[in-house]
């Protein structure tokens, strides 16, 4: 049986082979060196449990896939190993992550 290499360190979870993000299985610390797709990546920031980490470097306009499905669009440069969240990722489903004052117009809309 051929040997296969895991796409990422055990503390990161790949949900689907085509995903360009990984999920933190534990709290990760800035400066921690991890292996992602055979390359050593040093985490630029702390990553909380359950948050997304970029599998590869991403540019504004790139689409992010999780579970093999589109979840959002990158809004700023993201290095491999950097956290993906509201500061660099916009949802492709709702106009805001907080569902604040503008949510009423969206929820009541026909689109």
UniProtKB/TrEMBL annotation:
Gene Ontology molecular functions: lyase activity
SAF domain sequence ranges: 19-90
UniProt cross-references to Pfam families, sorted A to Z: SAF
Keywords: Lyase
Protein name: SAF domain-containing protein
Species this chain originates from: Pseudoduganella namucuonensis
């Amino acid at each position: 049986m051929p040997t296969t290499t895991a796409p990422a360190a055990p503390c990161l979870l790949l949900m689907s082979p085509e995903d360009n993000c990984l999920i933190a299985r534990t709290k990760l610390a800035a400066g921690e060196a991890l292996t992602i797709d055979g390359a050593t990546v040093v985490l630029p920031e702390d990553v909380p449990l359950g948050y997304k980490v970029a599998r590869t470097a991403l540019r504004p306009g790139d689409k992010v896939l999780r579970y093999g499905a589109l979840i959002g669009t990158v809004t700023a440069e993201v290095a491999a190993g950097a956290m993906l969240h509201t500061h660099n990722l916009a949802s492709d489903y709702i106009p805001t992550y907080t569902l604040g004052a503008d949510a009423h117009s969206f929820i009541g809309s026909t689109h």
